[in-house]
Amino acid sequence: MIDHRYLFIGGLHRSGTSLVARMAGSLPGVASIRGAPVPENEGVYLQGAIPHTARHGMPMHFATDPAQHLVEGCALDRLETGQRLEADWEPWFGPGHWRVEKSPVNLTRMRLMQQLFPLAQFVVVTRHPQAVAAAVSKWVDAPEVALVEHWIAAHDLVRQDMDHLHSVLVLRYEDLVAAPRRTLSVLAAFLDLDALAEPAEPIRDGNLDYRYGDLDAGQAAAMAGWGYAPRGRTEPLDPIVRHPLRAIRERVVAAAASAPD
Prior knowledge:
- The chain is of the alpha/beta class.
- It has a single domain (5-256), classed as P-loop containing nucleotide triphosphate hydrolases (Rossmann fold).
- Helix content is 34%, strand content 12%.
- The strands form 2 sheets. It has a 6-stranded mixed sheet with strand order 2-3-1-4-5-8, with helices on both faces. The chain has a two-stranded antiparallel ribbon with strand order 6-7.
- The termini are far apart.
């Protein structure tokens, strides 16, 4: 009998998924992958149930690759897939009611993971598209306009997928770095756990490392639904959370509305 539940964290590369995973892993009763011989302790590299190569997870490519959009009813939606994932991940987790698995590609696999693990919950991490474009430019040879367009297309797909999920929370990188303690409380509320008083690590705003320009009107309008504006600006955004229990939803909303750090 499985005595744990999964929290799957996903987002585009350089969005802050690793930071969110470490925050979640610091909460009481939460186990996370640590010290694994893979990039950023990502569980996708520690399993053989779902094919994954460097091409499958290419930054600023995977999220709009139809082959990487894994949903209920696909060829991998089988009992054997979930069993293999459990077996492959088991050695990497310590005791805990929750197990955090963070891989950017979870962004396009949430619907499949929900089928395999019906009690799983999901966190989508977003970051201003211009900041993501600047951060990945060292890896991806593409102009900002193309990278922002990819961000928009990826998050349009996320919105569609969220309609099929029971439990999902959107966390913005900008809200996290502005108020880490409040964000930790939001995470704890989503998992129905007690929050720690302080985050376990110092946090700085990496968005300050870049300069930002204007965007065309179409891209600006598409970003606005996530609370992002041109020139790297972030606007207020009501919490985006789904959960079957109203008490959990209300607790998340209350935590998000609490006083800033």
